[in-house]
Amino acid sequence: MPTPERTAGSGRRLAHPDREDIQLEAVLHALADPIRLRIVCELTDGHTEMACIAFNLPVSKSTSTHHFRVLREAGVIRQHYEGTARMSRLREDDLEVLFPGLLSAVLEAYRRSHRPA
Amino acid sequence: MPTPERTAGSGRRLAHPDREDIQLEAVLHALADPIRLRIVCELTDGHTEMACIAFNLPVSKSTSTHHFRVLREAGVIRQHYEGTARMSRLREDDLEVLFPGLLSAVLEAYRRSHRPA
What residue stretches are annotated with the HTH arsR-type domain (chains A, B) (predicted)? Predict the structure, then answer.
């Protein structure tokens, strides 16, 4: 069952799958997109938590919101509100328990394929 | 550039991406499906090459053909004809060079999540 989250200040709920409901296929689908891979990569680059607005993605706000939602609903990231800012962080621990080595292999592959020539 | 293949006996071409044209996002997309994960897993289970018909997948022939094509066009499998049989094998070497550890992490995750209770 997904666990809806309620932040005291906002009352806005953001649904997240429980660890045991995270599906490999959904995680792979969530990662199979250049914008979402970039988000995941930035979340590992020294940031434990980032506001959506801080990513400076080359897409519209609604497209960006869609990508974050795909990542959240697949169980790749966890989001919560701080005031009006939606903060995101990777669910590295959950993913590592479920799929050992997967996230690091994907991130390593992403960095290799986006390495400056 | 994809390299079309022509088998002496059949003349039927099957397009494959060259190693350097294999994209991480396409590979992840190809793997983000339970039928395609099953195909990939079976290709590693002691079989180096299998005929499509040997997989006994719970889908129609045209759906099955679609899944094999997605895997082939993403660079996950290589296919060729032997008579009328379309044979498939994993491009493990290419994938390991491009994305070290990715395929084994995905397969390990797949086997864990499909382990009998």
Answer: 16-110
- Closest residue on chain A to B110 (Cα): A24
- The predicted model scores a pTM of 0.86
DSSP symbols for A17-77:
--GGG--HHHHHHHHSSHHHHHHHHHHHSS-S-EEGGGG--SS-HHHHHHHHHHHHHHTSE
Residue B33 structural domain: 22-111
Nearest chain A residue (CA) to B32: A25
- Tell me how crowded residue B59 is: count the other CB atoms within 10 A of its CB: 12
A8 within a domain of the structure (yes/no): no
Residue A36 lies in a domain: yes
Q: What is the pLDDT of residues B23-81, one digit of tens each?
A: 999 999 999 999 999 999 999 877 778 887 788 888 888 899 999 999 999 999 999 99
CA distance B26 to chain A (A): 7
Residue A65 lies in a domain: yes
CATH classification at residue A30:
1.10.10.10
